[in-house]
């Protein structure tokens, strides 16, 4: 699974970072950054939950 964040939608709410801190970080610009574009098997459930919990639906999962 690959993960990206749409910068046009992201508001930096940090829900993703709270749920999957090994995959997401919210920087000084209040935009979520993907730390690992390819999601490890052990993180798939957390990343899926983060995507579903994003208030702006800015997280895009493929594969």
Automatic annotation (TrEMBL):
This is Ferredoxin. It comes from Phytohabitans suffuscus. Gene3D superfamilies: 3.30.70.20. Its cofactor is [3Fe-4S] cluster. It comes from the Bacteria. GO terms for molecular function: 3 iron, 4 sulfur cluster binding; metal ion binding. Keywords: 3Fe-4S, Electron transport, Iron, Iron-sulfur, Metal-binding, Transport. InterPro entries: Fe-S_cluster_ET.
């Amino acid at each position: 699974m690959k993960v990206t964040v749409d910068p046009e939608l992201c508001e930096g709410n940090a829900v993703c970072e709270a749920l999957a801190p090994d995959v997401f970080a919210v920087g000084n610009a209040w935009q979520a950054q993907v730390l690992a574009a390819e999601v490890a098997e052990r993180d798939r459930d957390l990343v899926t939950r983060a995507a579903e919990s994003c208030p702006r639906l800015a997280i895009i999962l493929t594969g």
